[in-house]
Amino acid sequence: MSTSNIRRLGRWRVAVAVGAVAALALSGCGLNEGNDSGESTSGDGSTVLRIGTTTDVSNFNPLQSLSKTDSWILNAMYPHLLRIDENAKKAPELAKDYGYEDDGKTAVFNLRDDFKWTDGQPVTAEDVKFSAEKIMEYKLGNVAAKLTWVESIEATDATTVKFKLSQPYAPFAEGVGFWMSIVPKHVFEKAGDLSKFANDSDWVGAGPFVLDSATKGQRYVMKRNEHYPLAPEGKAALTQVEYRVYPDVNTMMLALRNGDIDLMGNPVPASAAKSFDNDDKIEMTKVGALGFAHLTYNMNNKELAKQEVRQALSMSVDTKAIIASVLQGDAQQMAGPISPIFSEYDNTEIQPYPFDPEGAKAKLSAAGYTDGNGDGFFDGLSFGVACDQSNANITRVVQLFRESAAKAGIKLENECVERNTFLARTKSGEYDIDASQWGVFDNPMDQLRSTYLSSNPGGINYNLLKSDEMDRLINDAAGTTDQAAFVEKIKNIDKVVHEQAYLTPLYVENFQFAHNASKFTGFVASPSDLLGMVTAYSLAQVKPVG
Amino acid sequence: MSAPVLTEQTVPPTEPQVGATRAAWRDWLRQPSALLSVAVLAVMVLLALFAPLIADEPGGTSADVLQPPSGAHWFGTDDLGQDIFAQVVWGTRTSLVIGVAASLIALVLGTAIGLVSAYVRGVDAVGTVITDVMLALPTLPLMIMLAAVVSPSVVTLTVIIGVFAWPEVARLIRSQGLVVTAMPYIDGARVLGASGWRIVSREILPAVVPLMVVSVLLTASRAVISEAGLSFLGLGDPDSWSWGRILLNAQRSGVVAIAWWQTLFPSLAILFLVLSATVAGMRFNDSRDPRRNGG
């Protein structure tokens, strides 16, 4: 008897739960209304900037590999030698300027003398030397690969640091300058093995803000550094910056509209940009990208190792339609692997493969492929397309790619999986076609080295390409010190990759960031969703309205 | 309370039993709530069967992005301009296929384990422990873990959901089977020299069939919720439409607040399917309750 009653109860519980889900869905639409005005004016001239982020900080050690939220928070604490400005150019940060000596075999940074750690100590060349040496010693993060050629580092005085290289490498100073975090030697040297140092309390930084407290899953509170020379008044106008965690972007957008946060750290999805159309307080800021979306072909696959097959696949993606729908037109199509952001290096002679399923079919027929069983697909041409299912745009791209490739007689299987599974498969090479997005390339040489060298120094040679010709072309370009010749060599590699169709570059998207313009102003947005509105420099310039 | 009575009905000779079963079915469908839920289920099945005749398979892109419901798009459109109505109709297919197939897996496993446990004492001890352990496991996290490891497809999802749903069926069937096993006619069969297989399949199994009908409905509705849940978490089959995937698309593209139609209609579809399956199952159980039938 009791079992039957319990079971009955259970059934009602199911019914009630389902009803609640539906009610939630309904209330979602209710939230859309009556929210245009009625701003919750705090009126106290509050100078706390609240920023929404979708993920927690997973690592507080700035010398290691960082997720997006990690780098937002840590970049506001630890200075870099250079930053990327709003025009995607390197600009001085801790370094006043930099140059090369000794025929390009020594890189010299001249530092500012007015940066101070929050414990009162000045930031010196010793800190830079210490940071770089520890990265090399423990092979920390992605910067370790950029320091490959360093033979020795010398701090000649408090504001001069010299990197002696084993061979000239043109983008060395820019790459290291932008990526490397400078940490306080007097704090970090006490920690011992820096590959195991958590750095999760008692923070000492020299950026405009320094972490004060961290509550996982909720908020990260940063206090102002009273000495930050890049802020207009010698210190930031904001007294506090607070990151709040909203795992769901829909909730974050509602929080911004309701005034619970003042800025979304993550970009607003293209499809949802309309959300703020009728909201006067919210201002959208558009920036470019430093990476791009791409389809990369695994060369270990017998069929994908053939140039014709890769070219046919490139002709089966309707990139223009993808840009028009998935990105609402807010992106730029690419031809070769060099992004148009690097206008100097982008080979404008090459054209994207046209969307031409019939042409692709003809190319495959000419290459000897047939459809023996008459199912509309070429025999033996069936590939899985791997992607991270949490990336909204890429999953849509794969869905459309699968449909358009079917028209060309190529059978694709959508293998968009949970993020960690995807990363594991990418690492072990278990995919045919990799659909993903590269986040930030700060210069084309580093990009080509990490994506095409057979030694795979950056770990992102998703082609698993082992080509002597490509190795030779890339190494040759890397050692070229004459700028004009260097540009020509990059342009040539751009062309070779395009002809080989090692990858199908898709688009460089624009990101849109939303902030509450009725409360704060003065953001200096840099390109990419990694930098966006929340760089140290940008936060230091922000002031409250009125 | 209904359990012992259920067996009493199965004990008499064949004709009255069939008569009683038929009466129960009639009685079941005579209740308005049961009839209505069966009608809803029938409509869903028809939608699933004739999906290609009702709407084109959703695909491609169009310029009508995020349009609210209208004559041209009954349930509105999503951020690619695809028709939500077509997605819901095609989603019915996946949801029903997974619901039915997973509940059949659960039913076959659950009935087999339940019946054997009920009849063979030695198996019972082990079977009960396994069932208890399975019932104590947090199934959703486990399903998420498994679905993340294997490549998501309709087949793998069905197997995962079915394999995690059997213990409840097994427990139900076992408790009923224990009662039947103790009945004198089972002893009679044994005296007549019937084999264990014959007793379980010919004597005990028919006595638990009504219970199986109820569990199919309830397990299927749970399976539909599980499938929607897994798809919403991005662990569904990316190549086939399902209600959970429509919800996931809305959530992932950040349009939950501006495109209510994209979440409302698939949610309603889940609500109607689960509610009607649950009500139909409950009413079927009730219709066999002698208190209602006057003995």
Automatic annotation (TrEMBL), chain A:
Q: Which PROSITE patterns match?
A: PROKAR_LIPOPROTEIN
- One record GO biological process: peptide transport
- Per the UniProt record, one Pfam family is SBP_bac_5
Q: Which UniProt keywords apply?
A: Signal
- GO CC, alphabetical: ATP-binding cassette (ABC) transporter complex; periplasmic space
Signal peptide (from-to): 1-27
Q: Name one GO molecular function term.
A: peptide transmembrane transporter activity
Where would I find the Solute-binding protein family domain in this sequence?
A: 92-457
What top-level branch of life does the organism fall under? Bacteria
Q: Does the keyword Signal apply?
A: yes
The record's annotation in SUPFAM superfamilies points to: Periplasmic binding protein-like II (SSF53850)
Name of the featured protein: Peptide ABC transporter substrate-binding protein
> Which organism does this record belong to?
Micromonospora rosaria
